[in-house]
Amino acid sequence: MASHTPLFSRRQLNIIIVITAMIIALLSIPSEPWPQIQRLSLQQVPLSYIVDDDRPFELRLSFALPKTALLPVEPALALRQLLDHRAGATFSTRLSSDRLTISISAPSSTALAQHLQQLPRLLLEPFERTAIASSVKQHLAQRHINRQQRSAVQQADAWLRHHQPPPLSATSGPITEDVINLLQQQLFSRSQLRLSLIGPQPETITAELSAMLEQFDIGKSWGQDATSPTADQARVTEQLAPVAALQPLAGRQSAGFAEALLLSRMLAQLAPEATLQLHPGAKVSWLIWIEPNRTDTSPTWLATQLKLIRHRLNTMKDWELERAADDLRQQLEHRLLQPQAIADQLEVIAFYQLPVDYLPQFDATIAALTRAEIRQQLLALLQPERFSYPISNPTQQP
Q1: Per-residue pLDDT, 318
Q2: What is the DSSP string of 152-211?
Q3: Cβ contact 116:208 at 8 Å
């Protein structure tokens, strides 16, 4: 039998296999890293969703709380505690300053439909007075403890509540049994609700969602937010606070939020002597400057910090500014590889009714910033008139 010479040597075949595998891997990488968000309306409630046939259903119902400052109001804390006790394993809750979120996970549309049948009763049925009284008692005791040693954020929150326009609802006031009942009645309505859903095709569950939503009243919204305080409106004449200072920045629904997030992170890197916390809101975000290791009332602390940060900024190279922007973009892309992070981003986009292409818009905004623009905006934020100074001594009580 005649022998045949192979077309490729073993080494050549190995190279071909490796190259083929690399091509397949590259072709399997999505050309667009952003999830495709879609939106529809059910019973006058917007539903934002991502189709993912490889994931179980995850539904989140985000109910808008009355206007607040940095932290949730006491009645909302008590209501969440009551819900957690009642819900068991049916759903989980998470409380933010501006919303109460109900999360339901289910392996199939049938299982999710069963949870949806129970949900109206769990949310709408009045709580027993003894349970409410017990919750009120616990929170009043916690309030007393907090007043003995409040954090800088708690002090800043109290200052903002005092200086901003009055609350738009009685449910933002002191905690009582009547206030908790009123909050429950007004909160769980379609006007306050935004839905987000990840999982298989939503049409497999929309009928059950609609039936569930019909059991909630339309309700009334808490009203349009009063004009958010600007730096000039919020500023007071007391001495600069060594423990905390407040700086108003763009909110999530504002065009400048992407820049605000980038600049706040860069300032945190430029000011290692302080702790910076960004608290995003719909119309306005608050950047809190905290000096954790100081308890005196020197009015020069913030001025010294700003001078030091300006010096560091002026010595930064252009490539360092670019790297900070690139890092933020990469962090967002990497986070979206995690299922939980995708659900969190979808919840934010759904609740604030941001555009469905918000994530690529955010990325494009950061990418379009030039080095000169980043430097200029950072220097503008470091001007003293851009700050509010609510606290003169961490031990003082309002």
Answers
A1: 87
A2: HHHHHHHHHHHHSPPPSSGGGSS--HHHHHHHHHHHSSGGGEEEEEEES-GGGTHHHHHH
A3: yes
Q: How far apart are CA 47 and CA 195, in angstroms?
A: 5
pLDDT category of residue 101 using cuts at 50, 70 and 90: very high
Structural contact between residues 392 and 238, judged by C-beta atoms closer than 8 angstroms: yes
Stated pTM of the model: 0.83
Q: What is the rounded distance in angstroms from the CA atom of residue 383 to the CA atom of residue 168?
A: 32
How far apart are the C-alpha atoms of 278 and 262, rounded to whole Å? 11
Helix (H, G, I), strand (E, B) or coil at 344: helix
- Model confidence pLDDT, tens digit, residues 278-331: 999 999 999 988 876 655 445 577 778 888 899 999 898 888 888 888 888 888
Q: Are strands 193-199 and 45-51 parallel, antiparallel or unpaired?
A: parallel
How many alpha carbons fall within 13 Å on the CB side of residue 93? 21
Model pLDDT, residue 331: 86
Q: Is 348 helix (H, G, I), strand (E, B) or coil?
A: helix
- Rounded CA separation 356/62 (Å): 17
CA 152 vs. chain centroid, Å, equals 20
